[in-house]
Amino acid sequence: MAENVRIRETTAEDMPTLRSLIEAFLPFVSNAPGDAVTITVEDLVRDGFGDKPCFTCLFLEVLEDGKPPQVAGYTLYYFAYSTWSGRVLFMEDIFVLPEHHRKGFGKFILKHLAKIALDNKCERLSWQGIKERDCTHFYNAVGAGCNSAWSNFKLDVQGMASLLEEP
Ligand SMILES: CC(C)(COP(=O)(O)OP(=O)(O)OC[C@H]1O[C@@H](n2cnc3c(N)ncnc32)[C@H](O)[C@@H]1OP(=O)(O)O)[C@@H](O)C(=O)NCCC(=O)NCCS
């Protein structure tokens, strides 16, 4: 990689920056308006750094002499569990700011996660991706496989409430 970069774990003080990055990430994965992101900085601080942390977030920073480190991307992950194979590192988000695309930063982040996954005895590094988008080229380039026979299902708050009301 031409530029000098580092990956570091975020702190609660980084959550306002993360909140902005999440909003910048949105158009790459959805046509929803910006207000579709309902998470607040307070939610992120509570859920990342409270009694029961739910995620770890890493920032990728560009280091230039005489300048403060500049955030160029992030990833957010947590550990899941497969009854077939055991521990799974699930990558919720990976995002590199557009002005830094194709510099090897995304691959650098993914390699970092692969090391964390292996160090934690995970059988899998897993994520959801949208087909027919540019990111598919990236996933192919890093050698990821896709199980297209499986679909994602969800119950939103209304769906869960309705289920509870059923006899
Ligand atoms: C997907 C993403 C993380 C890739 O990060 P990146 O830093 O640009 O990717 P890299 O430079 O590490 O690319 C590694 C290889 O992946 C492939 N690749 C990456 N982006 C590609 C693109 N748009 N078109 C074709 N190939 C691509 C190339 O083979 C590339 O190697 P090369 O540049 O030497 O040819 C970045 O484009 C991004 O943040 N996109 C918007 C958010 C997003 O789509 N996230 C995924 C959610 S589904």
Q: What does this 3D model show about the protein?
A:
- By secondary structure, the chain is α+β, with helices and mostly antiparallel strands.
- It has a single domain, classed as Aminopeptidase (3-Layer(aba) Sandwich), CATH 3.40.630.30.
- It contains five helices and five strands.
- The chain has a five-stranded mixed beta sheet with strand order 1-2-3-4-5, with helices on both faces.
- β3 and β4 form a beta hairpin.
- α1 crosses α2.
- The longest helix is centred in the first third of the chain and has 15 residues.
- The site of coenzyme A has 20 residues, from α1, β4, α3 and α4.
Q: Report on the biggest sheet.
A: 5 strands, mixed
Q: Measured on Cα atoms, how large is the radius of gyration?
A: 17 Å
**The CATH C-level class name:** Alpha Beta
pLDDT averaged residue by residue = 96
Give the number of helices.
5
Regions with little confidence, pLDDT below 50 for 5+ residues:
none
Which strand order spans the largest sheet, edge to edge or round the barrel? Answer: 1-2-3-4-5
The ligands bound in this entry are:
coenzyme A
CATH architecture: 3-Layer(aba) Sandwich
Silhouette: globular
Report the helical percentage: 25-40%
Beta-strand residue percentage: 15-25%
Work out the number of β strands: 5
